[in-house]
Amino acid sequence: MSCITEEKQAQFREEGYFILERVVSAEQLKILREACDHLIDAMHAEMDRLGTDHIHISHRHKRYHIAKQYDRAPRLGEFVFSELMAEICRATLGDTAFLFYDQYVVKAAEQGMAFSWHQDSGYLGFSHTPYITCWTAVDDMSLANGTAYVMPFSHIGIRTLVEHVRDDVTGDKAGYFGEAPGVPVIVPAGSVAVFSSLSFHRSGPNTTDQMRRAYVTQYSPEILRRPGETEPMHLGVPFLENGRRILTQ
Hints:
alpha+beta
């Protein structure tokens, strides 16, 4: 039986998101945590090689965004192409899905930086078919440790892509500067927030003494390409065909 009810599907259509609590198995959560440690170590090694503490929007011991590394960490693909992710894709995208992007989003203890209101589609820079983001809580999430906030469509009346502005200091892009607070994703580890690439979301700083980890996988209903290019943007890995999983790891 699917963990995604008709009510969740309706909420996605109307508000752009839904939240699934405690749907990741203990074994898969262990995989996510071990993979995160592995990839942070690799990120530090690359920073050392380059002689820097800052790569793109990752900042050493403050915030890490480790992207497109699902095939470089032990067993991480088992989660990326799991039946849980297939269920989510079927409920939101339909029977065809591609892995578009993946990344760990980590806020270090007592130093994690905030992340501005943005749409994931705002980072692409061209018109495209909306995709979905699956934001998986690798740790228990709270206001104190900088959990994500999702903005329901009805709260700000925005369902389309808007222009974003880049912060030259952090590298972040932002597209909403109003006062609407959004909905905080306060969930236990092993929960997944699912939202449209057109949904605004942000996160706060981590003020606790523990690291706060989330793993993001994004799936598209078609291969996304930049205008005039033939190669897929980012990953473009086939996942679902006629509702069946092509890849399982």
